[in-house]
Amino acid sequence: MNPEDDAPAPFWMPFTANRQFKKAPRMLVSARDMHFIADDGRKVLDGTSGLWCTNAGHCRPKIVEAIQRQAAELDYAPPFQMGHPGPFKVAERLKNLMPGDLDYSFFTNSGSEAVDTALKIALAYHRARGEPSRRWLIGRERGYHGVNFGGMSVGGIPGNRKTFGNLLPHIDHLPHTHDLEHNSYSRGQPAWGAHFADELETRIVALHDASNIAAVIVEPLAGSTGVLVPPKGYLERLRAICDKYGILLIFDEVITGFGRVGAPFATSLFGVVPDMVCIAKGLTNGAVPMGAVVVRKGIYDGIVNAAPENAIEFFHGYTYSGHPLACAAALASLDVFEEEKLFERSRELAPYFENAVHSLRELPHVADVRNLGLVAGIELEPLAGKPGSRAFDAFLRCFDKNVLVRTTGDVIALSPPLIISKQQIDELVGTIADVLREAGRA
Fold it and tell me: What does the alpha-carbon distance between residue 11 and residue 35 come to, in Å, rounded to a whole number?
């Protein structure tokens, strides 16, 4: 694309410096397996699974063919008072993947919608069981739960919140767990920081009273805020406190789901079963928008059985909930994950990936390296007065060297497709190392 061409001007790009991009566009025109193809013909190694979503790599034939077949057979079916086989099949597959009694799936079109749906389910559940005073929703500082009003409200990233006023009422936040003084350069879960969960009991329950609190929502691993790995014992403490006070626990696994952390889901890896799990992204390998909330049987039963017979039990849903093409993509993606044993592959590659990213520790301006499964965050020392600019410069330099990384603030975040090879891990990390050395000499 010619930078002087006016063609891209009408597109208001999301989470993008529009003016900067349109002066020097970075355009991707095709993809296959581990690589994008840029408009100048360059092969670009994908170090981010697109946007944390193409866990099985790009344009996988089985997924592509499933979408094509479905589009020719049933392009759309209304999800209100009607059905088609797709979402029932996907829900059954998800039930078999999830631990415990996480049995029922409510389908959405994105992670943002999944989060808002989960918050509404929490409020509806407490109302159905005779505790309508439970209205408070508890998020966490530096949490990211999408960009709808509910998700922004429980989220804790200032830049996502400051423009939009008061957001939802009855919201409070736990502290985040990241502290460079105590847990920098941790390999996997930090040993320090589980006590941050106690704030739920000692401050939030003490302030609002448990009888007013509906749910706590956290990312097991916070991705978009810079890869914050949960300290050992932290999630277990949250679960115990929620159980003690009858508070629902929601895991936002939009990023951590479908093999990213070396297990099907973080709830599987950590052995902590929440009351609801929000998923999206990897569910369809990024091929068609789809999200879901997977809930425990008791929550579904509590809402459904409290309503009069033949009445709508939960007044919520989307035109595209369980869309036929999305379901076809999800079923094919789940087949690929299973047939190629990609969750197991993620677990097997994790130690090699960990050693590779931690080799960056001594390079110029590196303040921390942290990892879990096939996720890593390389935190850089910020330039004085220019937060985020050092990492963004590294992003641009990596792209010039045919490697795609993601940045959030001054953190380089890596989440490559689970099909990545050891040689490609070396290329990915080696390119970042070259960029950091060059920046250090500048």
Answer: 25
